[in-house]
TrEMBL record:
Keywords carried by this UniProt record: Flavoprotein, FMN, Oxidoreductase
Species for this entry: freshwater metagenome
Record-linked Gene3D superfamilies: Aldolase class I
Keyword check for Oxidoreductase: yes
The name this protein goes by in its record: Unannotated protein
């Protein structure tokens, strides 16, 4: 391997290459994670959309499929987060990744038991905060990234965060990566590797149904939108009919549209009107959202599952990065990782004015 790819991230994660497959809810299960880790990158199980028991099974299944290291992504605000962290410790999982930074006591608990902590952040001020709390790596997601996302693009957020971190821990660049040139550009900015969600979702190893992958592949770079109308937080998704309807609704029409959608999707969610009202009221109190968003938020997790796992495109919630628009194939995770590394090495040689491949022969 080209020496420039042997970064501090590789050392921290115990992977062969400085590439991370992120913990995508409903997508990053044992098959994808083990295929990624077997390919020499670092796979992360998405546990935020799993029950505790499902996580136990997912870890066991991943271990059956790979002896390479892998991590687990968690919600720091989950009711049973402590129990999940104890499971990680018992199972010898080397890295816990978090959608939002965990509190200091959870970080201390993980450190006391030898587990590394890698939160995702989407703003410079969050980098300053988590550095104070003592994390082991920071995953920086620029605005073009998939799922919940910020507004600053990777090309601006990454150098800002690299400067804040000042080399104290590895910075992992995320949001918009799909090839070896991107990996080299991230290293040039001072990152120690890249993390990809959408690119790994679009591999033959991800369990997303074929029709849904086809819908992703048919989406262009302008076919996504960041909306708060789904669950209150900025969320990048494919601009489906449902999303367009919710996003374009005025304050007057938003509530009837949300009620109409909730009624339409009751066949998937199985929630009774009373249950929906109860959950909605609790959410309204907790998050102070407009009513239309409260009504949709109660349905979103199920609608995302119905779309991503069961392949029902009518449910229409497809989280994605903008990078979806430049992806046109479904390689295996192994083919993808090998291709990115080969491209990165060729790029590094080109920048050094050498014949592609020469640096590998020398090292
Ligand atoms: C379908 C999907 C589900 C996601 N779910 C989660 C999640 O559960 N936890 C999390 O920390 N990030 C989640 N993300 C964000 C990704 O982990 C990752 O940071 C992002 O996809 C990077 O941008 P990219 O898609 O341009 O590679 C999700 C992204 C997608 C596309």
């Amino acid at each position: 391997m080209h020496p420039a790819l042997n970064t501090s991230l590789v050392e921290l994660l115990g992977s062969r290459y400085p590439i991370v497959q992120t913990g995508m809810g409903w997508v990053a299960g044992p098959k994808l994670v083990s295929a990624t880790s077997n390919a020499g990158a670092f796979g992360i199980i998405a546990s935020a959309t799993m029950t505790y028991d499902e996580l136990v099974v997912a870890i066991a299944e991943t271990k059956r499929r790979t002896t390479a290291p892998f991590g687990v992504n968690l919600r720091a605000d989950a009711d049973d987060v402590r129990q999940r962290l104890e499971l990680l410790v018992r199972e010898g999982i080397p890295v816990a990744s978090f959608a939002q930074a965990p509190k200091k006591d959870l970080i201390d608990y993980l450190h006391d038991h030898g587990v590394k902590v890698m939160p995702s952040i989407g703003a410079k001020r969050h980098a300053e905060k988590v550095m104070e709390w003592g994390v082991d790596a920071i995953l920086v997601q620029g605005g073009e990234g998939g799922g919940h996302t910020g507004s600053v693009p990777t090309s601006l957020l990454l150098p800002e965060v690299v400067d804040v971190v000042g080399g104290r821990v590895p910075v992992v660049a995320a949001g918009g990566y799909f090839d070896g040139r991107g990996l080299v550009s991230a290293l040039a900015y001072g990152a120690s590797g890249i993390a990809m969600g959408t690119r790994f979702l679009l591999t033959s190893d991800s369990a997303v149904p074929a029709d849904v992958k086809k819908a992703y592949l048919g989406t262009g770079v302008t076919g996504t939108v960041v909306t708060t109308k789904i669950d209150g937080a900025p969320h990048r998704v494919i601009r489906t009919d449902l999303v367009e309807q919710m996003d374009g609704a005025s304050p007057i029409t938003a509530v009837p549209k949300a009620v109409f959608n909730a009624a339409k999707f009751r066949k998937y969610t199985g929630l009774s009107w009373i249950q929906m009202a109860r959950e909605g009221l609790a959410m309204k109190k907790r998050m102070d959202l407009p009513w239309a968003e409260v009504i949709m938020a109660g349905n979103t997790p199920i609608l995302t599952k119905v779309t991503l796992c069961d392949g029902d495109l009518e449910a229409g919630i497809l989280p994605t990065g903008q990078v979806v628009g430049v992806i046109g194939d479904l390689p295996t995770a192994d083919e993808l990782v090998s291709r990115i590394i080969a491209e990165a090495e060729a790029t590094l040689d080109r920048l050094a004015g050498r014949t592609p491949g020469s640096s590998i022969q020398e090292s």
